[in-house]
Amino acid sequence: MFKTIEWTDEGVRMIDQTRLPREEVYVTCRTHAEVAEAIRSMVIRGAPAIGVAAAMGVALGVKDSPAKTLAELGADFDRIAETISRTRPTAVNLFWAVARMRHVFEEALAGPQAEAEKLALARSRLVEEAQRVLAEDIAINRAMGQHGAALLPDAGTILTHCNAGALATAGYGTALGVIRAAVAAGKKIRVFADETRPFLQGARLTAWELAADGIPVTLITDNMAGHFLKQGEIRAVIVGADRVAANGDVANKIGTYSVAVLAKENGVPFYVAAPISTLDLSLASGDQIPIEERSSAEVTQLAGTPIAPANVAARHPAFDVTPHRYITAIVTERGVARPPYTESLKALAGSTRAGSTAAARARNGDP
Q1: What is the end-to-end Cα distance of the chain in Å, rounded?
Q2: Is pLDDT of 367 > 90?
Q3: Domain architecture of the chain: domains with CATH
Q4: Which residue in the list 137, 194, 222, 242 is annotated as catalytic?
Q5: Which long-range contacts (CB under 8 A, 24 or more apart) does 296-299 make?
Q6: Catalytic status, residue 78
Q7: Engineered SS bond to 175: which of 2, 121, 273, 344, CB 3.0-4.6 Å?
Q8: Could you report the per-residue pLDDT of 142-195, keeping only the tens digit for each?
Q9: How far is residue 275's CA from residue 244's CA, in Å, rounded to a whole number?
């Protein structure tokens, strides 16, 4: 249907999500600084997609570096990585991707080749790795879909919050990937999409994606979720994630916590779909997850039009943390984690300690 992000000879091409659903417009970022700005301004958003963009931004910056020596290229890599890492603090996939690219870069420079060969090798390997990150993400999402589809009922309405679909990933989606897989398996699934104020990812993006796929979708305002849960119209809730702590606490788009509490109160299962790269096992709990605070103008204005008095104060935490006690299960590409999450997530992550190195560097201010 569309490509969220791709590597091209001209640069990193991505769909401009700030202009959906009015226009389907693609932009090409020709420098790593332009990729960083696209992440910061939410031209591209969603934790897995941010990870792919970060990897491509690093590759693009190093490819175009004028460095003539290993020392110069190393300094440029650090500068590029820092620029990318300073964009958005909550989604751990960003830091995971930068750390992964650093590992590939250091491996290339450690070889036996002459200096000129190492410079060329580092550049080519980073481009290859960035494209590998994209391809892996699509495969991961499809695997998550297969694991998660079995959790959804054979028929009924599923509630989702924000956008965790193809637009939030390299393709297919996390939470929406589970829904897509369930529909492909013959389940009669309908979707309620929270509008997701203040950036309206549900109204602008999730509804657009599902309607294009022919999956029945009904848009509701955020404050309607409790009503429909209480009325028994919703069979399950599934959302994505931007960071998952070792104990199963989940950071996701602001408003997710409220939905989780309402689901628990009404006996409705609440599922999270997230790749292993979104796990941050270095954090004992969600209390340690940094929460991005965005411009208050995104609350007081709607598409540039004021909707509040000019002199009123506003706050915009972009994410909240849902405690693990409200989460029925966490779906990953390696299987489904259930409580106690300290054990099940660690088992699924295996020896990779997913996200730990990247997150530790992020907290220390080291990209």
Answers
A1: 34
A2: no
A3: 5-143 (1.20.120.420), 145-363 (3.40.50.10470)
A4: 242
A5: 298/198, 298/199, 299/198
A6: no
A7: 273
A8: 999 999 999 999 999 999 999 999 999 999 999 999 999 999 999 999 999 999
A9: 10
